[in-house]
């Protein structure tokens, strides 16, 4: 992402040396991009309902390209207002820039063209914030950190790759559930046993310490049946993206 800052700096430095026709072409290109975004927002509005779907499991979107493929149309529809704002900004400021170019106000034209990116940048920040729970477990870690200060166990059912954000944000060690230690730790066994099977999870569930089990929503009913068949303590305490947190305590 840092390359865009470098590209913007290079463009700003080259602006004074670019002939007027090329400046006008660049401003027109920004306007065309704005019209394209407006068309995309209109398309999303018309097709969002019949093509609505749901997110898949986290393991299906561990790269940016797979995440875009997995992103349902309903999520794109939720981002439609930001597309509209960005489109209006691009079209409006491109017209202003063209006017200033033909009036020989090159510096003001460059400022107007740069100003068109402000709503786009803010929209990108808001968009990332809205869909971040589907890419990161940071919200889960923020929920668990104060609750694990006095003790308890955090458990994650999923591969190591999917828990990278949990490793970064969670202040406590956590366990992996139903994972192959040889696959997740191929370079040797960990210092302590962080891999648990279902029986070990249920054993800890029946103890007095708090247990927080992070699972995919599609696995919540399975774990509910496993727990309720042996204990009465079962609570779904929070959700984040496609994950839910199950606990033996409220």
Describe the structure.
With 250 residues, this protein is of the alpha/beta class. It has twelve helices and six strands. The chain has helices at residues 2-14, 20-47, 64-70, 73-78, 80-102, 106-115, 117-131, 138-147, 164-169, 181-184, 198-205, 220-228; strands at 153-156, 174-177, 195-196, 211-216, 235-240, 243-247. The protein has a six-stranded mixed beta sheet. α5 (80-102) runs antiparallel to α7. The longest helix has 28 residues, at 20-47. It starts with a helix and ends with a strand. Residues 48-52 have low confidence and may be disordered.
- Spans of at least 5 consecutive residues whose pLDDT stays below 50 are 48-52
The neighbouring-strand order within the major sheet is 3-2-1-4-6-5
Reported for the largest beta sheet, the result is:
6 strands, mixed
For the termini, the CA-CA separation is: 41 Å
**Total strand segments:** 6
Q: Treating each run of at least 4 consecutive H or I residues as one helix, how many helices?
A: 12
Our estimate of the beta-strand percent is 5-15%
Order of SSEs: HHHHHHHHEHEHEHEHEE
Quick description:
By secondary structure, the chain is of the alpha/beta class. The chain has helices spanning 2-14, 20-47, 64-70, 73-78, 80-102, 106-115, 117-131, 138-147, 164-169, 181-184, 198-205, 220-228, and strands at residues 153-156, 174-177, 195-196, 211-216, 235-240, 243-247. It is built from 12 helices and 6 strands.
Which helices and strands, and how do they pair?
Blueprint: H1 2-14, H2 20-47, H3 64-70, H4 73-78, H5 80-102, H6 106-115, H7 117-131, H8 138-147, E1 153-156, H9 164-169, E2 174-177, H10 181-184, E3 195-196, H11 198-205, E4 211-216, H12 220-228, E5 235-240, E6 243-247
Parallel strand pairs: 1-2, 1-4, 2-3
Antiparallel strand pairs: 4-6, 5-6
Helix pairs in contact: 2-5, 5-6, 5-7
């Amino acid at each position: 992402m840092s390359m865009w800052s470098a590209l913007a700096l290079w463009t700003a430095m080259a602006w004074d040396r670019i002939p007027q026709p090329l400046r006008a072409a660049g401003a027109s290109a920004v306007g065309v991009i704005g019209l394209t975004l407006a068309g995309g927002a209109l398309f999303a509005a018309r097709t969002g309902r019949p093509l609505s779907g749901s997110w898949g499991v986290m393991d299906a979107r561990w790269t940016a390209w797979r995440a875009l493929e997995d992103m349902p149309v309903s999520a794109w529809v939720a981002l439609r207002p930001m597309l509209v704002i960005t489109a209006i900004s691009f079209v409006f400021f491109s017209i202003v820039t063209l006017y200033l170019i033909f009036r020989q106000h090159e510096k003001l034209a460059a400022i107007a063209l740069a100003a068109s990116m402000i709503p786009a940048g803010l929209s990108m920040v808001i968009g990332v914030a809205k869909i971040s729970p589907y890419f990161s477990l940071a919200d889960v870690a923020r929920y668990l950190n104060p609750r694990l200060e006095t003790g308890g166990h955090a458990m994650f059912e999923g591969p190591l790759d999917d828990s990278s954000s949990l490793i970064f944000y969670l202040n406590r060690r956590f366990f992996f559930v139903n994972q192959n230690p040889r696959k997740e730790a191929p370079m040797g066994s960990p210092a302590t046993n962080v891999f648990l099977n279902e029986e070990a999870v249920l054993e800890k569930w029946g103890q007095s310490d708090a247990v927080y089990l992070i699972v995919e929503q599609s696995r919540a009913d399975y774990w509910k049946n496993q727990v309720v068949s042996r204990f009465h303590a079962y609570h779904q305490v929070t959700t984040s993206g496609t994950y839910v947190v199950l606990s033996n305590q409220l």
